[in-house]
Amino acid sequence: MKKKILIPTDFSKNAWNAITYASDLFQNTECSFFLLNAYNATMHSRGKLMKDKAEMLSFETEKNKSASGLEKIQEMLEFRGLNDKHEYHVLSVQDDPLSAIQMAIEKKDIELVIMGTKGASNYENKLFGSNTINVMENYVSSPSHLLYYYQKVYSHNY
C-alpha cells in the first residue's frame, strides 16, 4: 500500500526543499505525494460593479498562478529524475492554507504532512512561519503525523 503524503507549497525555496527532502527520505518507499497550493483572491476596490469585476480578475490571476506554479514544480521534479516508486498529484485549492490542508487530509486519507518551516516571507527572526504554526496548533492530533523540513538541518520524528 502506498504511503500518502501531503506537501503544502507556496512555491518558496523552503517548500521546494521540503518536496525534495520528502522524496529523498522515502526514496525506497512507494508513495503518493500530494502537492497542495492554497490561494485566495483578495482585492480592495470601491463600488459594487468594479469590485465584482476586480474580484473575478483577481480570482483568475491567483488561480493561474497556482496552476502554473504547480506545473513548474512538476517540471522540476522531472528534471531532477523521477523515482518509479513515487507518484505526484497536484492540488490547487481556493481556500486558506489551514482549511485546504485539513480538506486534503480528510479527502485523500493523508498519513503524513511534510512542510517547510518558513514560507515565502521567510522572516529572519522566526523559527516557524505562520502557516506552519497554524498547522501545528490546529491539525496535529499525533506528533507522528507531521514532519517538518528545517532550513539547514534535517530533523524528524517519524
UniProtKB/TrEMBL annotation:
Residues 2-137 form the UspA domain. Gene3D superfamilies: HUPs. Coiled coil: none annotated. Belongs to the universal stress protein A family. This is Universal stress protein.
